[in-house]
Amino acid sequence: MPAEQVMTLAAIVLPFLAALIAPWLTRRLGHHAAWVLALLPLLVFIRFASYVPKVAAGGVVTGGFIWVPSFNLSFSWFLDGLSLTFALLISGIGTLIVLYSGGYLKGHPQLGRFFVFILLFMGAMLGLVISDSFLMLFVYWELTSLTSFLLIGFDHTRAASRRAALQALVVTGLGGLSLLAGLLVTWNITGITQFSLLVRLGGDITASPFYLLALVLLLGGAFTKSAQFPFYFWLPNAMEAPTPVSAYLHSATMVKAGVYLVMRLNPTFGGTPAWETILPLFGGTTLLVGALLAIRQTDLKLMLAYTTVASLGLMVMLTGFGSDYAVAAAVLYLVAHSLFKGALFMVAGLIDHESGTRDVRQLGGLRKAMPITFVAALAAAFSMGGLPPFFGFLAKEEIYAALYAADYWSLAFVAVAVIGNALMFVIGFVVAFKPFLGEKVKTPKDAHEGPALLWLGPFLLALAGLLAAVFSPLFHAIISSPMASAVAGHSEEITISLLPHLGMPLYLSLATVVLATAIYLALTPARNAIAATLTALGWGPDRGFDQFIAASVRASRMLTAILQPGRLDIYMTVTFLAVAAALLAPMAIYGEWPSLPAWPEDAEIHELAIILIAFIGLAAVIWARDRLTAIVTLGVQGFAVALIFMLFGAPDLSFTQFMVETLSVVILALVMTRLRLSPADHRPTKQKIFDASVASLCGVGFMLYLLAVTEQPFNSYLTDFFVAYSKVVAHGANIVNVVIVDFRGTDTLGEIAVVMVAGLAILSLIRVRAGWRPGMLAENDPDAPRGEGT
Fold it and tell me: What Pfam families does its record include (predicted)?
């Protein structure tokens, strides 16, 4: 592998290596370990930043290696404008989050564990966005779900945290299965398993009769991960996680995985009526629902969480709108949102950390006590509100330029965008104004400015939003335009700047500000109105999730009671009936009954004697007075078969059969001596007749099956192969031994392992309690049937 690819692979693996050393480092340095651990994602950021000139010039970066050639599976990466931008956001914001976590969780006894989880998530998200292979993307996709489950449920002593973690895992896990099915359908349509090749086959996919199936399945994965309506409810509940998790997973990275997937698929799946209908409708609905629910909240994190839902809806709506301007708007807004929302979440956590509350009604007058935090919050709110001179202004202007047209469809989504942006404008300034302005309010803690570890992240992200707008020509050249080109599937140049242009986009921006100001001034009545509406509606997706889980548990209990009643005789009866059906049904359906063999004229007397012994042993088993006698006489059949093997020239098989039968009888007899055995069979006559019928069906089925097999012409292919290669390849003259030890060595090892595990399980059951003696369980169990094996 070339040195450049080795360095890229090292950058992919580095967050996982950092997770390995995080506990050790935290034990020695405490929260100061954050400064050291943050260097590792910073190195990842620098590595991916080195690819910016190449990608900005229209190139791509690829690499990897073949994993399973027979299935065309590879561990490969693909860096274009889209994946590189995501990689820079993940590693850059991740560096600041690691620092922020050290300050926010200072003194927490599980800080090392938290660093492990957050770094594992960083590595998973990084692998997801740079994956070229379908399988590689899916593996990392599921890993993000698992690591986010650990992060959301970090405070596992709280029931709310456990519920939120489970909810996120169930919703995104089901979406992951939908994604896997969609990738498999896409693979079936195209025959390829790499996204870099998929871009060239858009016509083949959209023309396929399976296009809609693949689209719906893939969007199922994207919509659940990016909290689209009606799957949005898990994201606000995930605010039970520590604030560094909220700032990283649920604003800047994980929730954008679905948006990333939609953008990645746009050149291939886009441009169809289904794409341009489903995405705008679901995205627009999510935008309105998230923004309206945000107004209702009074918790700073929940307010920001619902606006994140709204923002994700806006990005999905724009990506599916079907124009190059819309793609450019989605790209600009994605970058702007990552910067201002990450900063605002950190501000919310900083306020909570220093004042002891996140309830906006209990906050005020913190401007003098927390001046740096106030400046960062104000700058991020300006960007969230789409005001100059911040990057959010460029995104909002591009949104309105992309959506506005004279047709009803476009005007409807313009209205949706104006209302959604106005509501998010309100929330941004509620977070930036309410806690800091006005008279000083007494809070649970005496608020003061936090340490550098806490304010450095929001300050730098807010500053980045300002610099990206001020130097927008350079930023567009190296980030925005390459990303838009990757999403559009062709070269795209973004030129919007801070210089206002008279036109409908500017007028719509002014209308947004006016509407937002009116809502801000009437915030309490608006909050009460939305709360009353939701109370009147009652049921919602969040409550529906609880009902779904409860119904699933009830259904599983009912199904378990039917399929797993805890009675061995039922399990055995069902198993043998299934075996009999599998053997006899095909012969009956297709009329392929074998011919009965003729009585051999040259049968020797000793051969007939052995068969007679087998029948005598069978009769002894059936009419045995107790189970121990039945077990011993059961070995007669096995010995008879071993003698037949010996007579017909297979001494090795005969020896194996003797050993197996002897051990089986001995082991079963030893087990039976541990049980209280009854000499009588308490089954009613009808049950005996039924059991005998099932046994007869199985026996007849196997007999007919073997007869049918022996009627077929003998194929000596395997025989010839082993004869030719046993000595040459395996250097063994005994073909049977060579097959077992060499050609089927792994299979034999597996069989030995199974026997060993079964033996250990039996031993643990026998020695489950010290002082155990035969019959003790039956003596202590008043409900145990007397006279039966227990």
Answer: MbhD, MbhE, Proton_antipo_M, Proton_antipo_N
Q: Rounded CA gap, 145 and 124, in Å?
A: 9
Helix (H) or strand (E) holding 263: helix 257-269
Query: 359 pairs with which residues across the strands?
Result: 299
CA distance 7 to 13: 10
Crossing angle of helices 273-296 and 523-537, in 10° steps, is: 110
Residue 97: CB partners within 8 Å, gap ≥ 6?
118, 244, 247, 248, 342, 457
- The structure tokens listed for 587 are 């012969």
Q: Is 266 exposed, middle or buried (0-12, 13-18, 19+ CB in 10 A)?
A: buried
Tell me, rounded to whole angstroms, the distance of Cα 97 from its chain centroid: 23
Measured in whole angstroms, the distance separating CA 623 from the mean position of its chain's CA atoms is 56
Distance CA 290, CA 313 (A): 8
Hey, is 466 helix, strand or coil?
A: helix
| Residue at token pair 């079964």 | 758
Which residues have CB under 8 Å from 218's CB, separation 6+? 178, 179, 182, 183, 186, 261, 265, 269
CB-based contacts of 266, cutoff 8 Å, min separation 6: 275, 319, 327, 487, 488, 489
DSSP string, 52-71: HHHHHTT--EEEEEEEEGGG
- Tell me, what amino acid is at 120? L
Q: Report how far Cα 66 is from the mean position of its chain's Cα atoms.
A: 24
For tokens 């450049």, name the residue.
4
Nearest to 220 by CA among 161, 276, 178: 178
Other CB atoms within 10 A of residue 614 CB:
18
Give the separation between CA 517 and CA 577, rounded to whole angstroms: 74
Strand partners, 68: 73
Contact of 240 with 158, CB cutoff 8 Å: yes
Rounded Cα distance between 545 and 232, Å, is: 11
For residue 203, the model assigns a pLDDT of: 65
Asked if 249 contacts 179 with a C-beta cutoff of 8 angstroms, the reply is: no
Taking alpha carbons only, the member of 86, 488, 82 closest to residue 266 is 488
Residue 638: per-residue pLDDT: 83
CB 340 within 8 A of CB 465: yes
Alpha carbons 227 and 172: distance in angstroms, whole number: 9
Report the pLDDT value the prediction gives residue 284, as an integer from 0 to 100.
96
Phi and psi at 78, nearest 5°, equal: -145, 115
Q: Measure the CA–CA gap between 231 and 214, rounded to whole angstroms.
A: 19
Q: Which among 400, 380, 399, 404 has a CA at the least distance from the CA of 390?
A: 380
Cβ neighbours, 10 Å, residue 269: 23
Q: pTM of whole model > 0.85? A: no
Contact 377, 344 (CB under 8 A): yes
Residue 194 backbone phi and psi in degrees, to 5? -130, 135
Query: With contact defined as beta carbons under 8 Å apart, do 615 and 644 qualify?
Result: no
Residues ≥6 apart with Cβ < 8 Å to 177? none
Q: Largest alpha-carbon pair distance within the chain?
A: 113
Tell me the CA distances in angstroms from 487 to 252, 326, 327, 436, one per residue in order: 19, 11, 7, 40
Which residues of the chain carry a pLDDT beneath 50? 772, 776-790
* pLDDT, tens digit, 9 for 90 and up, residues 393-433: 999 999 999 999 989 999 999 999 999 999 999 999 999 99
Q: What is the pLDDT of residue 502?
A: 82
Could you tell me what percentage of the chain is helix, strand and coil, using 3-state DSSP and rounding each to the nearest 5? Answer: 75, 5, 25
CB-based contact 214:204 (threshold 8 Å):
no
Instruction: Give Cα separations from 337 to 166, 192, 494 (angstroms).
Output: 27, 34, 18
Instruction: Say how many residues make up the chain.
Output: 790
Torsion of CA 516, 521, 522, 528, to 10 degrees: 90
Interatomic CA distance for residues 169 and 144, integer angstroms: 10
CA distance 318 to 330: 6
Amino acid present at 702: F
Joined tokens for residue 77: 């990466």
DSSP helix/strand/coil, 133: strand
